[in-house]
Write a structure and sequence with these properties.
With 380 residues, the protein is of the alpha/beta class. Helix content is 26%, strand content 25%. Strands 10-9-8-7-13-6-14-16-15 form a nine-stranded mixed β-sheet. It has a five-stranded mixed β-sheet with strand order 2-1-3-4-5, sandwiched between helices. The longest helix has 13 residues, at 173-185. The two termini are 34 Å apart.
C-alpha cells in the first residue's frame, strides 16, 4: 500500500468542489503493477461517481488491480447504480478506502459487500484528511442541517466598517478572491436585510479562472423590508434568492418579492427576528448543505447565539480605524463573563498578502451535537 496514491485520490476529489453538493467530494485511483492506470472523481451532482469515472478513464484492463478511493463505495441504487457492484464486475482485487460513508443508506454496507465477495479491503488511510475535505457532507448527511461558515473581515481593532458605514475595502484582493472560492464551494450565502439596504450586493461568485456557480442567496429579513430594485432580485444568475421573513411581514410585500422570483420562507418570530434554527432546517430540506454567513454584526451574533455556526473564517487586515460607533464583527448583547466566551478549536492561521485569516471550529453547539474539530465526526 502506498500513501501517495490516496493523496492523489484526495487531490482529484478536490476538483469536484462547487459542483457536487449535496453529494460528497470523492476521488478514485486504480493502480496495477505499482503504476496508475486509471483516475476519476465525482464531477457533478447526479453524474457518475468517482469509481465509475476511474474505470472509464483506465488505460488498460483493471482486473487484479488495486483501487484507492477516498470514500466507501456506495452499495445502493440512487441516481446511479452501486459502485461496489461495479468494482466486483471489473475484477478489482483490493480496495483501499480513506473513510467509511456515514450515509444511512451505506454505513459499511459497501465494505461488507466487497469483503463478502473476497475483495481485500483496507480502511482508514488518510482518514482525517478525507473527513476535513468532506466536513460539509459529513454534517449534512448525518443531521440534514447545513454546515455553516461564519466569514467576517475586520480591521486590526476589530471594526467591520467606519463610523460612517464605509467598509470598502477592509481586506485586499487576495483575501476577497479566497472568499469567492468559498462562495463557489457552498450551496448558500446568507446576509441580513440591512446588508442589502446599505450595500446592495450581488452575492454572486466572481472568480477569474475555472467553472463557478453562484450560491443560493438567503436574505434574513424579519419584516420583508428590502427594496424590490435590489441587485439580488434583479440579476442573471444560476441560483435563486430566498427571503426568510416572519409573520410581521406584510403579505402584499411578500407577494411582490415572489413576483421578482424570490422564494419566501416564513419562520416563527423569536427575539423579534427570524428563527435561525428553524430556517436552517428548512434550508436542509431544500438540499442546501452549506451556508456561508456574510452577515453584519447583529446577524453574526444571532447566528452564534442560535448555535447554527460550525466554522469561523475571520480575516484581519493590518488597519486601524477606531471609533466608538464603528461596528465590530459580532454585536448583540454579548457575553457578561469571559468564561462564557465562545471558543474555537482546531485553529489554522493563513496569510493572504498582508492580511491574515484565522480559521477555527466552534467548540460545541447547544443541542448536544459536538463537532470534533480535526476529526470530522458528528455525535448526537
Amino acid at each position: 500500500m502506498n500513501i501517495k496514491y490516496m493523496k492523489r485520490a484526495l487531490e482529484l476529489a478536490q476538483k469536484g468542489v462547487g459542483h457536487v453538493n449535496p453529494n460528497p467530494l470523492v476521488g478514485a485511483v486504480i493502480v496495477k503493477n505499482e503504476k496508475i492506470i486509471g483516475e476519476g472523481y465525482h464531477q457533478v451532482y447526479g453524474g457518475p461517481h468517482a469509481e465509475i469515472n476511474a474505470f472509464r478513464n483506465a488505460r488498460e484492463d483493471v482486473r487484479g488491480a488495486t483501487m484507492y478511493v477516498t470514500l466507501e463505495p456506495c452499495s445502493h441504487y440512487g441516481k446511479t447504480p452501486p459502485c461496489a457492484l461495479a468494482i466486483l464486475d471489473r475484477g478489482i482485487k483490493k480496495v483501499v478506502i480513506a473513510q467509511e460513508d456515514p450515509n444511512p443508506e451505506v454505513e459499511g454496507r459497501g465494505i461488507k459487500l466487497l469483503k463478502e465477495h473476497g475483495i481485500e479491503v483496507v480502511t482508514g488511510v488518510l482518514e482525517e484528511e478525507s473527513k476535513k475535505l468532506n466536513e460539509i457532507f459529513l454534517k449534512y448527511i448525518t443531521t440534514n442541517l447545513p454546515f455553516c461558515i461564519l466569514k467576517t473581515a475586520m480591521t486590526l481593532d476589530g471594526k467591520i466598517a467606519t463610523r460612517a458605514g464605509d467598509s470598502k475595502w477592509i481586506t485586499n484582493e487576495v483575501s476577497r478572491s479566497y472568499v469567492h472560492s468559498l462562495r463557489n464551494r457552498v450551496s448558500g450565502i446568507m446576509v441580513g436585510a440591512n446588508t442589502i439596504l446599505q450595500d446592495d450586493p450581488f452575492l454572486n461568485t466572481r472568480l477569474k479562472e475555472g467553472d463557478t456557480k453562484d450560491p443560493v442567496r438567503i436574505i434574513v429579513d424579519t419584516s420583508a423590508k428590502i427594496f424590490l430594485e435590489a441587485n439580488v432580485l434583479n440579476m442573471e444568475s444560476n441560483a435563486h434568492t430566498i427571503i426568510a421573513a416572519t409573520e410581521i411581514a406584510k403579505k402584499e410585500k411578500l407577494k411582490a418579492l415572489e413576483s421578482k422570483g424570490a422564494e419566501i420562507i416564513i419562520t416563527p418570530l423569536t427575539d423579534n427576528g427570524v428563527d435561525l434554527k428553524y430556517l436552517m432546517k428548512e434550508l436542509g430540506k431544500r438540499k442546501i448543505d452549506s451556508v456561508l454567513l456574510e452577515g453584519g454584526s447583529e446577524l453574526n451574533y444571532s447566528a452564534l447565539e442560535a448555535n447554527i455556526v460550525d466554522k469561523v473564517n475571520a480575516f484581519i487586515a493590518p488597519k486601524i480605524i477606531g471609533g466608538r460607533e464603528a461596528k465590530t464583527s459580532v454585536g448583540g448583547l454579548g457575553r457578561t463573563l469571559m468564561k462564557d466566551a465562545i471558543i474555537l478549536n482546531d485553529i489554522k492561521v493563513q496569510s493572504f498578502g498582508e492580511d491574515i485569516m484565522i480559521e477555527g471550529y466552534i467548540k460545541e453547539s447547544g443541542e448536544g451535537d459536538v463537532y470534533r474539530a480535526g476529526r470530522g465526526n458528528w455525535h448526537s
